[in-house]
Specification:
Two copies of one chain form a homodimer. With 229 residues, chain A is an all-alpha fold. Chain A is 83% helix and 0% strand. Chain A folds into two domains: 8-44, no CATH class; 71-228, Orthogonal Bundle (Tetracycline Repressor, domain 2), CATH 1.10.357. Chain A has helices at 8-20, 23-44, 53-67, 70-76, 78-83, 85-115, 121-150, 155-186, 194-228. In chain A, helix 7 (121-150) packs antiparallel against helix 8 (155-186) and helix 8 (155-186) runs antiparallel to helix 9 (194-228). The first copy, chain A, is elongated. The first copy, chain A, starts with 7 loop residues before the first helix and ends with a helix. Chains A and B meet through helix 1, helix 2, helix 3, helix 4 and helix 5 of A and helix 1, helix 2, helix 3, helix 4 and helix 5 of B. Chains A, B: It is a multi-pass membrane protein.
């Protein structure tokens, strides 16, 4: 059954050496081995220059076209936007927060997928859902105070941006957790691609959430109040 | 002068083994060595869980506060924004394009810094300046056509977004090239931190550029034309 490869004797010697070394010697030896491996790598495959201008332009243009989808949503809320400059003022902050939160969660999960041989996806999702709500609430309170100060204590604008921020940050963390797992386990694609996908999805979703919350609180609720008076 | 370390004999043996192997055997041996090194790594330092909720909240809140700086700029252009919904419609697309272009350039430079022992910073900057203009022009033409179609052939809106897009993409690529080099060579900080810094700078700069171009083309130039008539 066992097939003796020509290099198996050398492997045995290497393993013996490794186990015979003291902790300090091991460090020196490993440092040396790593350096030699890097040398071999460099000889085996020359550094691939993936700096092709056209592939860069293609990716950037594709992302641009996808992200420009938000213009349709914003146009359909043109009434809200031209009457409430508040929406535009905090739009880049809200959309940016979604991208940051999603990316941060994705990076943590991607590293988890790369280093841990086995972990329970269910417990990870449960824990990250909990994290998403806590992080969402804490970041939202910071954002609320920030808007509240600039809007000189006006509650409705601060509440509008705050609620939108909470929805964006929590959904972004959940997406950032799920997407790398879906990419690796279900679609069998490198989970590192999650970054730009999250960025684009959260751009569109962030604009949707902001407009929906703005429409509900600034237009519908105000109209309702006016009717009651 | 020469100090013989206890592990130096083993290092010699290892080097001899390495040079004695054929290409195919080398692959098998290296694969084995890598696996053993990973085992040692795992034993030496247990996986550090950097999933601290509070450090995540701190970073996200800091980015939020920095990105909210764009609200001051947008408020000072409130007249332009409430009269030209075009600015808001394409703002997330423009700001997003800046972030993407800057990040892409930074990732390429960071990998360059990590793999190449020596390369001419001057020639890299020259080449990336050239790339920035070419990529900026090509992405801008895609963006121009995209806006031109949605605005049903109106030239001034398409030109406004196009010029803003060109300025944002080129400046973002230049920033993405320079920042990792500055971080590593001058401030001596891990260049991997360039990502979020670029995101925040390009958010603010993107809003500035868009408002400035919008003010010049949509307000000042139109007013000038009206006067002439």
């Amino acid at each position: 059954m066992s097939q003796r490869h020509p290099s198996s004797k050398i492997i045995e010697t290497f393993d013996e050496q490794l186990s015979s070394l003291s902790s300090e010697e091991l460090q020196t030896f490993i440092k040396h081995v790593r350096r030699r491996l890097d040398d071999v790598d460099e000889k085996e495959k020359p550094v691939k220059e993936e700096n092709n201008i056209f592939s860069r332009v293609f990716l950037l243009s594709a992302l641009l076209i996808l992200q420009s989808g938000s213009s349709f949503i914003l146009q359909s809320f043109s009434d809200l936007i031209s009457r409430h400059i508040l929406i535009t003022m905090y739009l880049t902050m809200l959309v940016g927060a979604g991208g940051n939160a999603g990316n941060q969660a994705a990076v943590l999960v991607i590293r988890r997928l790369a280093t841990s041989k086995s972990f329970s996806v269910r417990s990870l999702i449960l824990r990250e859902t909990f994290s998403a709500v806590i992080i969402g609430a804490l970041v939202t309170s910071v954002g609320f105070v920030r808007v509240w100060i600039e809007e000189r204590g006006a509650i409705l604008p601060s509440l509008t941006i705050g609620i939108a921020l909470f929805c964006i940050v929590t959904s972004s963390i959940l997406l950032g957790t799920l997407l790398p797992i879906i990419l690796q386990r279900i679609i069998h694609v490198d989970p590192a691609h999650a970054g730009p996908i999250i960025q684009v999805i959260m751009d569109i979703l962030g604009v949707c959430i902001t407009c929906a919350v703005g429409q509900t609180l600034l237009v519908n609720l105000s109209a309702h109040k006016h009717k009651e008076l």
